Amino acid sequence: MARPWEADPSALFVRRLGKSAKELGTTKDEDGCPDIWELGNGDIAIVGRDLTDAYAARLPADVTIASDERLVVIPGRMLRSAKPDIADA
Question: Nearest CA to 34 among 52, 46, 17?
Answer without folding.
Answer: 46
